[in-house]
Design brief:
Distance between the termini: 63 Å
CATH superfamily of the largest domain: Vaccinia Virus protein VP39
Structural class: alpha/beta
CATH class of the largest domain: Alpha Beta
CATH architecture of the largest domain: 3-Layer(aba) Sandwich
Shape: globular
Strand content: 25-35%
Number of strands: 20
Radius of gyration: 23 Å
Length: about 425
Amino acid sequence: MTIWTVKSESQYKVKLKHPWVYRDELKRAPILPYPGAAVELQSEKGEVLARGYGNLESKVSFRALSFGLESGHPTTEEFVLYKLLKSWKRKQELGFTNSFRLCFGEGDGLPGLVIDVYRLHPDLNAQALAIQILTAGMDSILRKNPEIFRRLIQKAFEQKLCSFDNERTAIIFRNDVRVREHEGLRKEEARFVQTVKEIEWSNVPVLVNSYNRSEPLVLNCDLYQGQKTGLFLDQNLNISTFLNFLSKQNTAKKIRVLDVCCYVGHWSAQIAKWGQDHNIEVEIDMIDISETALKFAKMNAKGASSVNAVKQDALNDWPLPENSYDVVICDPPAFVKSSKDLEKGLSAYIRLNTESIKRLKKGAFLVSCSCSGLVSKDAFDQSVLKGFIRAGQPGYLLLRGGNAWDHTARPEFPEGQYLKMNTYQVGL
């Protein structure tokens, strides 16, 4: 294991268990045998601060897997397996027995690894693991032996953490993301490590927790080539928070909803179910630039009284009437993926919020979200504020939200708290 030394002025952060060390925070960093090789990080006095992996090609040059002397060899398969089983047990105890995020990188102690577990409709009697390996260090650990994921499923099945063994589990590598290029890795085509052959993975029904944790909700999506790992699960908490709030309002027996950047319609599907549960007629209009996403969204929101899908770039003019909606969901993709995108991305948030606010009736509700980790809560708040000013409407902040519980947020790693959700009442 190669020894690197961190500058004295930067070691306090590591002692507080922040998992990242940047290139300019290192005092001594000998060349590694390969990018992502094991590294022991020491203070200038020789104290062992952390162990993990290093990559001098990356701006974040060291990522910690363990701190102090708590693990002798954290870059081993056994260590990763231990961490994943620990995470699975903890999330099951939190109530995630349907589809959920098993591993959220640094939040679950495994930087560079994202795993979503998808439980399929009971008729299919199967589950899927969608895996993204995002860093050279995690790639060097897992590419040597993908058998680790089969072992994970078998152990999870034996420990009753899941209902399916390897025979009924698909394992999909979704390394088709550009962020890998920052680590010197190439973007790859999606591929199966193992599959359940009779299942059509490009259109598969998965189970997610419903807004009130009653019977699960069925959402169809593409687990093979859909965005990210096929479905965004991080809004579960925010959807539940907003709909439980809406349940306490004097809501009319008929409401009109606009879902902007709807993707496969998770928000719309949950609102439609809420309407059915409360004997409220829900009419939904959706906007998305992807025709494929809109097809899924219409299918998933079929519980609404009417669904209208509009193929549209949300940053262009909207062919939808102003002052017409009781609820607008504004949940765009990450506009800011690097610091150079910040100014342009904030302008996009301002435009989307301005147009969303214009579509709301007086007294109606705006749910505005950002999944750009590089956009601070304050900067996001300011972009929504500018939207209210440009729309010429007053607004009242009612609710705040963030990552769902399975997208583990650690206090020592604020960068992992990427998701923002603000709910406003408009125009009173």
